[in-house]
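## retry 2 of 3
previous attempt timed out at serialization; input unchanged, resubmitting
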Amino acid sequence: MSEPLTTPGEGFHPHLPETTAPATAPLRNRLHHIRAGALDGDTAQTGGMRRFAAVSGKTVGSEKLWMGQTHVAPATSSSDHHHGESETAIHVVSGHPEFVFLDGEDEVRLRTSPGDYIFVPPYVPHREENPDPSEEAVVVIARSTQEAIVVNLPKLYALPAEDA
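## retry succeeded, writing output
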């Protein structure tokens, strides 16, 4: 039988005496379990999709990270948008969403499958599309800022270098 990681009474931080631990740990001193059914829909939105926060300053007290889900309904396209100073990493969970951006004057369409990843640099205008007529597309998103920055745009266009 292996030795336990902590002995009874040592608690979460075995190197700290019980008397120094606060009665209620602050948000930044504990792990947080966000259940799938408890995602927060009160976040920045873009037409044609729904965003749900799991990890944010509001939900868990994060200071440098936002993470959540985005759902794009069947046969739907989001509005054009960018995420300001945020770097965005996307993991495709289900469906076959397409990510559209401009490379110079050319429109580029990235067709994805479950398990794929997409990286969106700061300030890059783009949109998500779900061409499937019957299946919702779901992706998990992680951003390098505490909250979901969303700047909705009137059209997909390249930002001048001084604006980026």
